[in-house]
From TrEMBL:
Domain VOC: 35-164
UniProt similarity note: Belongs to the methylmalonyl-CoA epimerase family.
Class of the enzyme per the UniProt entry, highest EC level: isomerase
One GO term describing the cellular component: mitochondrion
Protein name: Methylmalonyl-CoA epimerase, mitochondrial
Catalytic activity field: (R)-methylmalonyl-CoA = (S)-methylmalonyl-CoA
Length: 164
């Protein structure tokens, strides 16, 4: 009857083979990429930026901390799932000073992603021809080792890796 005709005339649906999972195409690493730690924003006026996030948007904002080794003042804005890092130049040779010369109103400076083994990450990234902007990790704003990857090797984004 009707049921047998529907069963024979219905188009067959093919499913994609799951014999090869997506993860099999990714080479195994000796280190693992973790969560997004923060997005850093260079600001020409640190007090105004702090006020925007604290007084206007109602975020929890840290005290200003000077990091002379990096040439910056830094403030962290706590969000539910990550942080924003507000950066302001500390001294004339600050990388943030040169960034602000090109971007007068400020803007996104870098993203920071956690890694479980920064030394292994450095070794493997160098083998993959990714330039690292320092020979050794420096201690970052969270008191943990950090490195920066060259933006030209990361599609125009300055990437900071931080030991988790």
């Amino acid at each position: 009857g009707l049921l047998s005709r529907l069963q024979t005339s219905a188009p067959t649906v093919q499913t994609l083979s799951s014999s090869k999972s997506f993860s099999q195409n990714i080479p195994s690493c000796l280190w693992k990429l973790g969560r997004l730690n923060h997005v850093a924003i260079a600001v020409p006026d640190l007090e105004k930026a702090q006020s925007l996030y604290k007084d206007v948007l109602g975020a929890q904002v840290s005290e200003t901390v000077a990091l002379p080794e990096h040439g910056v003042y830094t403030v962290f804005v706590e969000l539910g799932n990550t942080k924003l890092e507000l950066l302001h130049p500390l001294g004339e040779k600050s990388p943030i000073a040169s960034f602000l010369q090109k971007n007068k109103t400020g803007g996104m400076h870098h993203i920071c992603i956690e890694v479980d083994d920064i030394k292994a990450a450095m070794t493997e990234l160098k083998k993959k021809k990714i330039r690292i902007l320092s020979e050794e990790p420096k201690i970052g704003a969270h008191g943990k080792p950090v490195i920066f990857l060259h933006p030209k090797d990361c599609h125009g984004v300055l990437v900071e890796l931080e030991q988790a």
